Amino acid sequence: MLKFLWNSNNYNIGEKDQFWGNYHKINSSTWIKNILKETEYKQIENLDDIELNDKLIIVDSYIHNKKNFYSKLSSVCENIFLFHLGDEMFHVPNITNEIYQNCKFIWRTFCNNLFFDNSKIKCIAVGYKSGIENKKVYENRKIKWSFTGTSHKSSRHDLLFNLKEIKPNFIHQTKKFGDNSSLDAEKLSEVFCNTNFIPCPNGFFHPETYRLYEALECGCIPIVEDSYKYYDRLFPNNPFIKIKKWNDAKEVILNWSEDKINKKRDECKNWWSDYQNKLQNDIKKKIEHEKF
After folding, report:
1. 66-75, pLDDT tens digit by residue?
2. d(Cα 94, Cα 107) in Å, to the nearest integer?
């Protein structure tokens, strides 16, 4: 039988592990449920519900601290299909790779050079936070661009410096990641659904952040930093606007016509829908042992 276990909040050995394990369960559950919508499985809550020779879909983070857990799990399950979340820095690669050997297949967020062409590992979008939704498709969005989050890196300061005079905008800065001043998903959805462009600066350790996929989910046009051609490697033929420096984004936000904006928005909307549909079907085929 194919079973599903969310394990990111289990078997953690420290406060940091537990914080991020809970964070991923809260914020990524809707995304994972979405990409598994074509796959039939029985959800379980703990290891006591696993029987010999079951196939298991497991969602986890900080797996480098769970080596013994995965060793034991592989002795019980016929196949393990791992969704590995949150490993931006590729923690302890030797142990992570050793754990990967216990799995039939791995889907992981935050790609790097070791995984782009790995036949056993598929890099997937980080996805949007749970609660984000396209509340309404505004025909004439009132906000030219929006930014929410911390300005912890120099490129984010550069973003705000170059774009802040372009009005109307929506800027909501927080002092640190995940603090109480962060916008909730409902408010963020309302803002994004009324915004044309979402500048998506690189994350603290990695180019990807939730922001890109929240923008796509809300029908916005993402503007990304073109670092090492990362997004072209991860998503060939993607429709994102790519810039080398944030000053390059000014002309786009200021001068694009409504027709050009609508055309690019439709392009992004269709790409995002196609990406999700293909991912859902590819996951189903892989788990059912069909050709991937």
Report:
1. 999 999 999 9
2. 18
